[in-house]
Amino acid sequence: MEHLQGRDLLSIADLDAQELQELLQLAQQLKSGEINLKCDRTLGLLFSKASTRTRVSFTVAMYQLGGQVIDLNPNVTQVGRGEPLEDTARVLDRYLDVLAIRTFAQADLKTFADYAQIPVINALTDLEHPCQILADLLTIKECFGSLEGTTLTYVGDGNNVAHSLLLGGALAGVNVRVATPTDYQPNPEIVKQAQELARNSTEIVITDDAIAAVEGVQVIYTDVWASMGQEDLADSRIPIFQSYQVNDKLLANAAQDAIVLHCLPAHRGEEITDAVMEGKRSRIWDQAENRMHAQKALLASVLGLV
């Protein structure tokens, strides 16, 4: 994994297919205890958006590697008072070994990467959520033994998670179908990029037909209908997305061994029912745990520990 040392991860597409598979393999080895890595490095968390899983999983992963974590809350740093990102990036570069950023604009993330020499990791932007997809792919691999040839259907809003699933699925050999209302489809440029990565070897489908999209698939995935920053739109979206709810009726169209994933937090009774979340096909809690293992592998790789 030496080729990942010092590199940024701003998009899941910053990896190639082999690097992605190697990261997932390392995550499995770290999770099983087959490999035990230690370091004396410092991770900074610069989060402008609320976070439970991302914050805690990154923190625990770094502690388990033997490193330190500094929470750079924008509300108590000069970032929150308008210090230019370029200046902050160059200062943090002198203190930290790696920086994970959770923010709104992908352009802000890129600015940090341009001005800091340390690895910069996308811990979520409005455009992408690559670390989530590393955990998702790890979970699917655990369940089915292989990623290649499996089919995943994402049902709901064509948001940052959908974008990274399209790109990550294309790299990993996973067929990806995205079912959304017509006016809520994923960014066309991301779809085009995913199609180019797939190179006709995997299926990339964008549709408004949720039932057809889940027919015979191994993985059904959903997310909230209104992402962070869109809370004022949540109620108005419910009638638009109601037919895209992941429930027992929708699940009946999938393969008999299909699993259900959700990146959390969930609005139970909206995009997913209690029965499905707590049902035998749910792998949501394994998926949440795998955030830590996948990110530990990523941190170990960009820090040159492997």
UniProtKB/TrEMBL annotation:
The keyword Cytoplasm applies. One of its GO terms (molecular function) is amino acid binding. L-ornithine binds at N160, D223, S227, M228. Pathway: Amino-acid biosynthesis; L-arginine biosynthesis; L-arginine from L-ornithine and carbamoyl phosphate: step 1/3. Signal peptide: none annotated. Its EC number is 2.1.3.3. Belongs to the aspartate/ornithine carbamoyltransferase superfamily. OTCase family. NCBIfam families: orni_carb_tr (TIGR00658), PRK00779.1 (NF001986). This is Ornithine carbamoyltransferase. It comes from Hyella patelloides LEGE 07179. The gene is argF.
